[in-house]
Amino acid sequence: MIRNYLKIAFRNLLKNKVFSLVNLTGLVVGITACLMILQYVSFELSFDQFHTDIDRIYRVTNDRFQQGKLVQHGTITYPTIGKTMAKDYQEVDSYTTMVNGGTVKLRREKSISQDEQLFYVDDHFLTFFTFPLLAGDAKTALKAPNSMVLTESNAKRIFGVEPKDYARLIGQSLYVDLDTEPFRITGILKDIPATSHLQFKTLISYETLVRTWGDWVKTSWDGSDMWHYLKLKPGSDAAALEQKFPAFSDRYFQGDKVSGSVEKFYLQPLRKAHLYSDYEYEIGIVNNGKAVWTMLIIAAFILLIAWINYINLATARSLERAKEVGVRKVAGATSGQLIGQFLSESVLLNLFALVLAIILTVSLQPVLNEMVDKPLSLSLLTGQGYGGSAMALALVGVFALGLFLSGFYPAFALSAFQAIQVLKGSFKRSAKGIWVRKSLVVFQYTASVVLIIGTFIVFRQLEFMRKENLGFNMDQVLVVPGPALTLWDSTAIDRITSFKAEVKRYPAIQAAASSINLFGNRLSRTFNVKRVGSNQEKGVTISRMVIDLDFFDTYQIKLLAGRNFITTDSDPDGRKVKNAILNLSAVRLLGLPDAASALGQKIACYGRDWEIVGVVSDFHQQSLHYPIEPIVFQPFYANGGFYSFKIASTDPEKTIDQIEQKYREFFPGNTFSYSFMDEQFNRQYRHDQVFGKITTFFSFLAVLIASLGLFGLSSYTISQRAKEIGVRKVLGASVGSIVALLSKDFLKLVGIAIVIAAPIAWYAVSTWLDDFAYKIDLSWWIFVVAGVLAVGIALLTVSFQSIKAALMNPVKTLRSE
Fold first, then answer.
1. Residue 213's closest CA among 226, 200, 228?
2. Pairing of strands 579-583, 133-136
């Protein structure tokens, strides 16, 4: 019986090639798009799922308030927090504390490694998280000072060993940057999964910091550079524990007496660290959870649109299949057998589409991975991604359910035909069936219009961010990291100045500067800053940038009042540096009315007074996700900073080679690398750009699938009205009037879809734009343009068939009458 069903189904598909091709194309494109999006969603949702105790792990977050105003919403806090919470609260099973060591170079004899991400971690770290050791003891590897754990990729690259030889690396030594004291290797760690929000290549024991930074890294209640994670005991209520934290703050911070800020602490589940982090000083890899869930909704829309195409086209062909149903019923076929026949056609077409979609997905995998810059694969949907095997089973279930439902309605509708009416020729299409098809077309185009509007808004916001005046000029600015392997001494400032002067002798170099900070990076903050001689009871919080005297000129930042830094403002002895420059936001925060009034004023921070010698205009130090921050600029130099060179646009390769030559002369033994400032700054928009690419591409596919369905439906509908068109032409109807007649019904449906889609799209894009401090306005014309575009696509789709029918010779269609 099943074999017979499949044979007849195959014949029917071949017999109706056009409709089969339209349906197949829509299904293949829809399933392919769905599989590609689901890979991305599965990857993003699977972050940190490999940790054994993920449901019990939380990280401590910290909000700081001054004068009732939130001044920091971050993941960093004080050294004592983790261990004190573990001591005070029985709900806490264990804790771990860590410090971001930045990027370092590892030295072994004469070989120097590339930049490596380093974390300083306590001895609980390796037993707290599920980062398996391949060699060494997780309990003791990071207890002693100067202990070091490498990832296996580092071990292979630096020592050239195979996995079987990892154990012999235990006890060997490496040097970090300019340290003269060796670090002893105590463990080899399995490479960190791509789905870990913590990404690092090297771990060094926290006890090492006690030697280099001092005891405050264990005892301080006001020095803030640490990240803390807590593991709660099984069955503990995190929300109930969090309710105890106000008392914790009262007990240890006594309002703002200890740290200068009112401290509030919270627990963030490790599960949410990747997708739901709006915190400053983020140590991990984060993404926008709203964008990820939006992708999932788009995947569902695309698949629904593809299945709706099948339902619409299958039911629209009801008249054509009516006689077949009548003959089968007269011959003794039951409704169940007819349903089985039509379901088999649906299963055959969907399974064929699934096979083609999988092949197409695998073929397009490199393109997708390059688009999103992530290691995606189909394995993420077959047990290795979010939810494991449960996710794979769920996907199979969803596909099977969708396949059944998309085939069941047409099968049920076709099998319900009355044999007598059909064979007498008195059968007419059901008004209910026509209403269902129209509703499905409205749904398709509602989804399509929402995606069109969303894509348009995302594109305009990205363009706005790209073209917005940031307050500084980063075009053709080459950034070169400073020498990490050159000692700082009394000659350092002269060496840096001489290097810049030598490079500026090249005609292509228009300006040169050095700085500790780069645009786009989170600045450190200075708390409790007060204006000397004012009546301020409480200090304010101001961000800090460390720059040289050429920085403002290189980046063309406007000086509003006073002067720029001069040579005598800097000194090798940092304690002698006493002059500072503020931006306009900092001036206003200190209660001064304008830039000119700030000149000569003094501010108190870091235990001494600083004289304000200049004021510069505000600029966007970070992306437009964040408001402009008040900044104090200080004239320090450091080897570990960055050089910025404004270069001519002609022959940049030659210019870079010239800079590299001078760099190697002044800083021998250091690795030369470079990037352009606009690339550095725009990395902040990486997730937004990926989101824009994905929404644009898959929205196009969704509209394509909907248009395929409309094309097939209009083609079939027009073919059913062929005789009517012939009669109208004989009676004198023009081609234009016939095209308008045939098109208007479909355009009405698209118009209804636009009306429904507009408020949905407005809510969705408003929610997305809430993540930006600076954003475009949602003007009414954007929705009008999107609606006109949708109507244009629908009209183009329908008019092709309408014009073809209107131009047909009426003799051919009326010959049989």
1. 226
2. unpaired
At residue 654, the 3 state secondary structure works out as helix
Residue 265, Cα to own-chain centre: how many angstroms? 27
Q: Is residue 236 scored above 50 in pLDDT? A: yes
Cα four-point dihedral sign 67, 68, 69, 70: positive
Q: Which of 149, 212, 683, 748 is nearest to 439 (CA)?
A: 748
- The domain ranges of the chain are 2-44+289-462+686-814, 54-272, 477-682
Single out the residue of 717, 621, 699 nearest to residue 453, CA to CA. Answer: 699
Which run of H or E residues covers position 603? Answer: strand 602-605
The three-state secondary structure class of 700 is helix
Q: Determine the Cα–Cα distance for residues 61 and 279; give it in Å rounded to an integer.
A: 8
Q: In angstroms, how far is CA 758 from the centroid of its own chain?
A: 25
pLDDT at 109: 73
Could you tell me if 539 and 668 are in contact, meaning their C-beta atoms sit under 8 angstroms apart? no
State which amino acid sits at residue 691. Answer: F
pLDDT of residue 422: 47
- Give the length of the chain: 817
Least confident of 51-65, 311-325, 577-591, 764-778: 311-325
- Tell me which amino acid residue 489 is: D
> What percent of the chain has pLDDT above 90?
41
- Please say if the pLDDT value at position 333 is more than 70: no
Asked if residues 471 and 624 have their Cβ atoms less than 8 Å apart, the reply is no
Nearest-angstrom CA–CA distance, 320 and 486: 83
Q: How far apart are CA 369 and CA 359, in angstroms?
A: 16
Between CA 94 and CA 169 the distance in angstroms is 30
Q: Is the dihedral of CA 298, 689, 622, 629 positive or negative?
A: negative
Q: Among residues 201, 207, 209, 206, which one has the least CA distance to residue 228?
A: 206
Backbone torsion region of residue 96, taken as left when φ is above 0, otherwise alpha when ψ lies between -120 and 50, otherwise beta:
beta
Confidence band, pLDDT 50/70/90 cuts, at residue 423 = very low
Written as one string, the DSSP assignment of 213-273 is H-THHHH-SS---BEEEEEEPTT--HHHHHTTHHHHHHHHHTTTTTTSSEEEEEEEEGGGT
Q: Which of 221-225, 427-431, 723-727, 734-738 has the lowest mean pLDDT?
A: 427-431
Q: What is the pLDDT of residue 79?
A: 95
CA 492 to chain centre: 41
Rounded Cα distance, 31 and 35, in Å: 6
Quote the mean pLDDT of the chain: 85
Q: Can you read off the two tokens belonging to residue 724?
A: 């009517």
More confident residue, 71 or 621: 621
DSSP annotation string for 719-768: HHTHHHHHHHHHTT--HHHHHHHHHHHHHHHHHHHHHHHHHHHHHHHHHH
Q: For 604, left (φ over 0), alpha (ψ -120 to 50), or beta?
A: beta
Specify the residue for token string 């507009």: 758
Q: Distance between CA 315 and CA 408 in Å, rounded?
A: 11
Q: Where do the H-state alpha helices sit in 468-529?
A: 492-503
Residue with tokens 């306009």, as numbered in its chain: 584
11 vs 664, more confident: 664
Q: Above pLDDT 70, what percent of the chain?
A: 86
Checking phi first, is residue 171 left (phi over 0); if not, alpha (psi -120 to 50) or beta? left
d(CA 426, CA 417): 11
Q: What is the pLDDT of residues 473-513, one digit of tens each?
A: 999 999 999 887 777 777 788 888 899 999 999 999 999 99
Q: Which of 63, 389, 78 is nearest to 217 (CA)?
A: 78
Coil, strand or helix at 163: helix
